[in-house]
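Final report, section 2: Outcomes. Of the targets proposed, LamG domain-containing protein is the one most frequently requested by collaborating groups, and we therefore present its record in full.
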Amino acid sequence: MRILIFTILFTFHFINCGTYLLLTNQEQKDKQSFLNFVQLTLLDSSIGLVHYWPLDGDTKDIVGGLDLTAASGTPALTADRFGFPGKAYYYDGGGGYHQSSAQGPLFFDGTVSSFTVSAWVKGKYPPGNNGNEFMFLSQGSGLGLQLYALTAGSCSGRLRAFTNNGGSGDVDVGTDCGEYPEDVWYHMVFTWDIQRLTASLYVNNVLVSSGTFGVNRPWATNNFFQLGLSNISSQLFEGSIDDVRIYNRAVFPVSSL
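The predicted structure is given below as tokens.
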């Protein structure tokens, strides 16, 4: 009987030991898998990155050197999407906006290259009949990202991205009206895939609009890059902007941004 009990305990001891070793090994594998995922995500978010304005207390382009300067007033530092003070910029809609210190290169030349525009934004939907003219991000009169409101009483609560290629038509992707309330942080990503002639808009990592546009390709011009204003109109954006990135490729998945 004593031998039987010893045999059972001895076997149980080694089973437990084996289980412990197995669990420890699995933990190490999970940890390595997580580290690999983080490294791949960081790598993917840097490939093709040509301009990056973190807006963490200043308006420097830490990748492409296309720094922004204040014009017609000074946008104020504000809390970012995480609530950290001084890590984003607020535009009051009354005068101040940011503009690149030099004309930007053809990084939006959709006739020869794919591209991606990524930005975090929180703002007001503009009232009145000219709400479709308010842009929070633009370059010249060719590209705009906006919180869209056509009239005070009809379409509002819409997020939109578009390009104007100078006469042959627009690339235009946007959400339905009334889907997105104002004064909420949204991550907007606009991609142009030249191989598929497809433009896509993502909001908070979800594809909300996509289309194939054929000859209506994104415009090609070099002009000043602006936050809070567009050359399309004199309308000024009211809201906050953070973490703006430009890629010379169609980033996918956008969750890596």
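The longest strand covers residues 238-247.
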